[in-house]
Amino acid sequence: MARIPAPVAAVRTAVRRGLADLPPGALVLVACSGGADSLSLAAAAHFVGGQLGVGGQLGVGGVGLVTVDHGLQEGSDRRARSVAAWARDAGFDPVHVSTVTTAGLPGGPEAAARTARYAALEAAAARLGASAVLLGHTRDDQAETVLLALARGAGPRGLAGMPQRRGVFRRPLLDVARADTRKACAALGLVPWEDPHNTDPAYARSRVRGAALPTLVAELGPAVVGNLSRTAALLAADNEVLDELAVEALERARSAAGLSAPVLAGLRAAIRGRVLHRWARELGAPGSALAYGHVTALDALVTDWHGQGPAYLPGGIAVARRGSELVRVVPAPTK
Length: 335
Ligand SMILES: Nc1ncnc2c1ncn2[C@@H]1O[C@H](COP(=O)(O)OP(=O)(O)OP(=O)(O)O)[C@@H](O)[C@H]1O
Fold this sequence. Notes:
This protein is an alpha/beta fold. The chain folds into 2 domains: 6-138 and 162-198, Rossmann fold; 254-329, Uridine Diphospho-n-acetylenolpyruvylglucosamine Reductase, domain 3 (2-Layer Sandwich). 52% of the residues lie in helices and 13% in strands. It contains 12 helices and 10 strands. Strands 3-2-1-4-6-5 form a 6-stranded mixed β-sheet, with helices on both faces. Strands 7-10-9-8 form a 4-stranded antiparallel β-sheet. The N and C termini lie far apart (76 Å). The structure holds adenosine-5'-triphosphate. The site of adenosine-5'-triphosphate has 14 residues, from helix 2, strand 2 and helix 4. Belongs to the tRNA(Ile)-lysidine synthase family. ATP binds at residues 33-38.
């Protein structure tokens, strides 16, 4: 039997691990842009699903593929159609092209495309009854995410990078090097699509990918990429504990109209920050816009109270101190 090239084996092993706990007969969808990461992921999922599916060790009942057309780039529909044609030929079932619009979504074009993409993938999973949607983020993506988080002064939540799993989404390649996804494609004769955004210096991530991270690797050695991604995994584990403590503390701090300031004041700062962040989300502040400064302003109502006015949160939310409570108030109309 011909030897399986090491990068192909690495991607397959990661996918096999990532799917190990699926229920019997589960449908798995691969979110595929046609880039090397998600193309190698798709090929591996198809192989693993076929090998371990019906009658095999794993519960995989089928492997489908979804590609999203954001309509933002010239030829994006052609790219989507060619990914879908490849997938049908390769035997993915179902194969779905999801056309989304980013008009009216908050943030820049990249953020809007991401929001629309995740919503479309979630909707496709619900409609098709899929148990998991696989994303092709690699160890290098994780290292870039950690570096970007460090650069903006993020805390443990940001430094934990992208989770292995959230809701229906899974990222089985977070421990696989990006170079291996390219080599896997080459070994399988797959020609990946090159996203021009990935090298566009207008984006901070592209500059991290093209300059900041390669500089760190050149100066500190190639282990940097894996080490940054290990930092993410370590902090993700710490976050789990801190989040549990924060959930309990939030319940203890609840008062008639809001949160009790004395209870909050008795919490360790790390937990209090998380409690206030959670509460702000509960009040409706969008997570993507909720920043360090917003939580600090809430915190000041507890720890630095001198009769100041409300703290303003994204989403048009205002929180004031009333006696010994933090309560939501109607914001004063802006003139
Ligand atoms: N057009 C697309 N159609 C389907 N899936 C896609 C598409 N674009 C990206 N994906 C999925 O998302 C993964 C990450 O892609 P990319 O790095 O381009 O996105 P991102 O903007 O960094 O996303 P994230 O917000 O998750 O970091 C891909 O490996 C693939 O699984």
